Amino acid sequence: MFQSSGMHAPLPVAALLAFGSAIIAALFSPVSVSAFAPTISSISINSSTRVSTFSMRIPLSLGAMPPNPTTVDNKYDATDNIVEYAPSSVPAIITEENPLRVIIAGAGMGGLALAKSLSKNPRIKVTVLERTNKFKRFGGPIQLASNALRVINEMDEDIYNEIMSKFTFTGDKENGIKDGIRDDWYAKFDLAGPAESRNMPYSGVIERPDLQQIYLDALPTGVVQNGDAVVRYEEVANSGISRSNGNGCYGVKAIMESGNVVEGDVLLGADGIWSSVRASMREEPVRGDGSGVSYSGYTVFAGELKYDSFDHGQVGYKVYIGPGQYFVITDIGKGRYQWYAFLAKPQGSSAKERKPNGNSIYLQDVFQGWSNDIHHILQATDEDQIDQRDLYDRPPSVIQPWTKGHTALLGDAVHAMMPNLGQGGCQAIEDAYVLAQELESVNSRDEIGGRLASYAKRRLIRSAVVQGLSRFASDIIIRGFDTPAKIVTDDDSNGLKLKLENFNYAGIVTRMLQPILPIFFSIQFNFLYEGWRNDTGFDLNAAVRFAIVGGLIIAIGAGTVEVSALFDGLGLDAVFG
Questions:
Q1: Structural contact between residues 342 and 328, judged by C-beta atoms closer than 8 angstroms
Q2: 202-214: per-residue pLDDT in tens?
Q3: At what angle do helices 109-119 and 208-218 cross, to 10 degrees?
Q4: The pLDDT of residue 394
Q5: What is the DSSP letter of 93?
Q6: Are the CB atoms for 428 and 108 separated by under 8 Å?
């Protein structure tokens, strides 16, 4: 017996806003970013030299500072532990003797990929500042889609080959959405076709610790500095103003958790969704109200195990859909599988909801009546292999700055997104690729601000569309899809009878969307795989196709009146908020 979910609007306002955000973002040209002139309360200006100094109270035990992108002249006073700091005066022209000093905050995928690329250039000195004292094997597999793999190969063929040696392909197998209750295929994704037509590698997965270690092993000794985190930054006074002898004070001061100061020409915030660099740039809190980070409305349970799946080697990943929730199972190689259970829950439900019999039993109850495959893998998962976390993201926006002065953001620090498309890490790698191109083209420190602004223009629209699509996927699957309506035959002693299953509004709409979604998926994956070079800020082809097919999905799911309301204001809020 199929139960109606009681849902009357398969595509709620949240889903429409997300899709509208993606479409509207694709129709706006990038916004230029303005110069940044922060207030530094502790500076005293010496007008005769045009070099500023400031005083900072730092314990003497911090006198042995970690290796920095530049040597800093510090003077210590044993009486009051005051350090007098004079920003370095450097030539405007960048050479091997006076290299571009790049500071990267955070050693995630985007930060490490960027550091590896920049470290090969003799005119660039790069330093990665990472909070953790020591890297440990932590985290499960990460998806690298065809676009990210193509970028990695372009950036560093040796790194690409190392990744391939530990990689599990999923894009060459069956992938798609299944009816969570009937266990039938609902719609399949063609990941292979768009990759093959562009001579790109198939999408797949690699263990996150393996990927991280590949980059760490490839970086020169001393590039990554552990045990201290950037908590804020300040622009060096007179940044970018050349003195009469050709020298000047350029760049930024990264102020560390320990109180240390690291000076460089460029600061790149790759410090994740709770970015301190972003908070300092935008003068907003790192967390909570006003941070720009919002709870997605979803919590996810995740498990990883060795599992003898009945379709091993045939299916890459499958998404089981049904009313109010969905379940993902993916092959991660070597007989191991990972699964995710996405539920629409209030923020903090992990601490508030009692699970006396553990997460596995709790989820088996939540997915009662769903596919046996779901229950088999839940029953096979040890309790200590199941984690739960709330999902956060940042709505697409075309006016919040990516760069100010000599500082820029990348990865989750600027465009954290839902995991449905598996593009979070991929988009961070694309950020790194474009940033490396822009910074390697800098010949004078006076050009830095312009090159960072160019990076933002090249990346803003594409990443905003991917963000919007990721949100749209979450909302349409959880809040929009139901068990599809179906007409079945029942042959009993009284003869052949027709039987209607889940013949309610939500079920009918879910069935109507079935032939349209493969077209939408084809447009989506072609867009993702086509634009990896980021050489244009606007893809008219993709915008038109998304508008037509996405508009049809919205029209079927919500009616033209709600679409009109979407574009009349609320959708704009999601983009510009």
A1: yes
A2: 999 999 999 999 9
A3: 20
A4: 78
A5: B
A6: yes
